[in-house]
Amino acid sequence: MTEHADDPNGERHAAPMVDEVTDFEVLEIALRELAIEKGLFTAEDHRRYTEFVEQLGPVPGARFVAKAWVDPEFKRLALQDGIAASREVGIDWLHPTGFGTPSDFTALHVLEDTPTLHHVIVCTLCSCYPRPLLGNSPEWYRTPNYRRRIVRWPRQVLAEFGLFLPESVEIRVEDSNSKHRFLVLPVRPEGTEGWSEEQLAEIVTRDCMIGVALPKPGVTSDIDRPVHRAVRPAENY
Prior knowledge:
The protein is an alpha/beta fold and 237 residues long. Helix content is 35%, strand content 13%. α3 (59-70) crosses α4 and α4 (72-80) packs across α5. Residues 23-213 form the Nitrile hydratase alpha/Thiocyanate hydrolase gamma domain. Belongs to the nitrile hydratase subunit alpha family.
């Protein structure tokens, strides 16, 4: 049913579909229509890509990590050539347009954790992120406080995520950019001996592959984290 709004004269008008169109939305529409007009891509290309992006999720990355845990040859490939390894788990970074997505044409680096080394990823400039593997980035990943604080006080910020690492574990922060993407390969947790690749993939959450959580038996989804004031907030943002 179409919603209507009454005016003082008794006439009924269709309610606006959106409250406000932002400057960024106006710019996107203008740029998209110009690109279509110039033949850079078609409206159908845009539709297919939009549908592709909207259905992205972290499942491919979870399969990637689980396979690396159980297959030494695949793990070696993953550490040497992340893009080639992605194809082995069904992720073609050129899909579906044939000419690339915003996460194409990059060097994918797989960061292997050890019992004494823990990686965490960030994009200090914006929100660069391996979307074909991890899906769309979470909102907190794009916030100025995370981007600026994780490189300054990584141990404290990880503690705010509920990840408390002993001082004996080195924390290494890797900064993504337009040419380089990262995926964390966490240590396989104890208590998963004999598990199948499918069972292992279930406990590899998005946060584990960013590095703000560790995989644990029984934990199959990212924790819904409450918002709270930072102890050392990034100022002027």
